[in-house]
Amino acid sequence: MKVGVLGAGQMGSGIAEVFALAGHRVGIFDVDKSQIEKALRNIRWSVEKLTEKGKVKDVEEVMSRIEVLPGVEAVRGDDLILEAVFEDFNVKIDVLRKASEEANDESIIASNTSSIPITELSRAVRMPARFVGMHFFNPPVLMPLVEVIRGDNTGPIYFNRAIDIVRGLGKTPLPVRKDVPGFVVNRILFRIFNAACGLLGKYTVEQIDSVAYYELGFPMGIFMLLDYTGLDLNLSISKEVAKRGLRLECPPVETLVKEGKKGTKSGAGFYNWA
Ligand code: CAA
């Protein structure tokens, strides 16, 4: 299969890696060239890690399946086009409109949106029946679950095909038939973030994270996960779901983002990562 990934941030690069690891040819595009260079460095680092652990044989073979696309028009001819740009309705609409104009009539178009209903995004897509949500979790290469979301306009054939594609990656698809803001996972996860934020002031970040990690058995603390996922992404998701009536904000996140603290990727967030 030939796959075009639009957006080379944390999620786009991880998704491109997952498809390349599964043997697909992947093209990746981002308007920001430095982001592409960073994405290729991160993918190489990750594939090398998997090689050390005996999960991948040949780093160069995997890397050779990934090419950098010169523009959105280069997705023409791809079997699957996966949009993974910043979590902002207008940015996504713009990219999806351009990509679907270029796509051939047989392509499936997917969005990695974490929060925006697929039915709303489908209005920008030329072939809404072929449009689905395919929501990966960070880091895509290690996280087994992928939400596959059916919008009101998604054709059942294409929804099932998207589920099969996810299965073919060795991932576990979670079919989501109720196209609501935040889908399933983030409706739960953001309530957890929200509850933890509500305890700040009474308890420290470290105390709350210790409870999550040592008592509740979470793989990492809640604020650590917020830093790891990206506070800017968290803020955008909160804003997108709030516009649709679901209020799950964490006010300290907004303050940190205003200070340029976006979590691990910027060197600081709730924790100092420098
Ligand atoms: N590629 C390859 N290897 C990686 C890697 C990657 N991207 N990331 C980490 N590793 C490696 C580490 O380098 C480490 O290797 P060594 O053993 O050689 O040191 C190994 O994996 C284990 O990593 P950690 O020591 O960090 O240990 P861990 O056991 O905690 O595993 C984790 C890491 C899988 C990320 C785990 O902490 C976890 O599951 N955390 C929760 C993640 C999560 O919930 N993600 C969802 C966030 S929400 C989201 O993404 C969606 C949204 O819409 C907001």
From TrEMBL:
Domain 3-hydroxyacyl-CoA dehydrogenase NAD binding: start-end pairs: 2-179
GO biological process: fatty acid metabolic process
GO molecular function, one term: oxidoreductase activity, acting on the CH-OH group of donors, NAD or NADP as acceptor
Keyword list, A-Z: NAD, Oxidoreductase
UniProt binding sites for NAD(+): G7, A8, G9, Q10, M11, G12, D30, E87, K92, S114, N138, K265
Domain 3-hydroxyacyl-CoA dehydrogenase C-terminal: residue ranges: 182-273
Site (Important for catalytic activity): H135
Protein name listed in UniProt: 3-hydroxybutyryl-CoA dehydrogenase
Part of the full-length chain shown: 1 to 274 of 337
